[in-house]
Amino acid sequence: MLNAKSSGSFRIVVAGGGAGGLELITRLGKRLGRRPGVTLTLIDQNPAHLWKPLLHEVAAGTLNSNEDELGYLAHAHWHHFQFHLGRLAALDRTRKVLAIAATVDDDGQEYLPRRELPYDCLVVAIGSVTNDFQIQGVAEHCWFLDSRAQADSFHLRLLHACYAANAQAAPLREGQLHVAIAGAGATGVELAAELHHAVRALIRYGLDRINPERDIRIHLIDASARILPGLSPEIARAAQRALESLSITVHTGEVITAATATGLHTKSGKTIPAEIKVWAAGIKGSDVLAKLDGLEVNRAGQLVVRATLQTTVDENIYAFGDCAACPMHDGTASVPPRAQAAHQQAKLLARILANRSFGRDSGLVFRYRDFGSLINLSVHNTVGNLMGNLFGRQAGAIGIEGWFARLAYLSLYKLHQITVQGVIRTALMTLANILTRSAKPRLKLH
For residue range 205-215, what is the model confidence (pLDDT) as tens digits? Predict the structure, then answer.
């Protein structure tokens, strides 16, 4: 029996302001935000939103996170919902109350206490975190790129390493400016190409004692037989050709067994020297998901949901995006953890929750539509395919590469911006970026 009401109060809380969560709460704000009795709330542990697929550019410094962020508080004001800063910490399903963890500053001082928030419908959209598979040394010696803060920290580490090497009188240590990226999925591949571009741009700005061909090497490592194992072999081959043309060393079929301060070690006995290491070899659900008052999680720590996006043990709690395991319509697998899946789920869930606010069961279920995959290799190339259902049910995948693929890739971010901020605001921001581009360095230098 649905608990929605056609009259009285109805409280929807969305936990997580990533791409899916922010799109959902924005859509709900437009539909329900001004309706009497409806309360919409977003909670997130960060004060501002940055599209997660851009984090590899933030890490490389080719994107300034301060310029592309969107403040939640102002966005909530413009779109008729409330925002609470904090992290989802616990859940009491009987009382229909969630707990928001205390928030501390950089010095560890608490400035927001732990508090509770009631709900009638709760949506969990907190994304995923990197899975280190408890491999020895990974947590201690590798960088993760789960958040803007981590990407910013990695960028500073890269800058400091290059500045130090440029000023160093002694010869560079083996692997001192080598970067090893564990995981040759989309994030790893795109990061490798972005770092190749960024480091050479940094050298052109004046760190000219560094020889990029002699001193810098980027390694990309994966346990699978090829890079991009989740995408088609055609995309993988095109991407690998592009990476090899940049002298990026690709290691496939290599299982990493340990990480140290100076490199990575593999099961085959290979040692890859690198003092800068990034772990992008898998994702899992946040540890908090297994502590949410008995909600079912799978082996990867994701919340298990039905095709309605409702959790299996509580019809008043929904989950979507990377934190959820949603079945494909044919039941053969789970929906892949991609931005396009979260976008589609947010769009459907906005309709479902709007119906529930009126006390109606919409009967809607989620069916994932794969519109293709695009891999952006910085300024060097973009490869991918557009699936046939963009053009008709019977068509197959259409492979694309070069400037057209790059344009299609850029359009994905613009579509996200339009969904969240509208056409006019997105157009104005795009125009402002174009007009000011020549007055700014192409690389963030701090």
Answer: 999 899 999 99
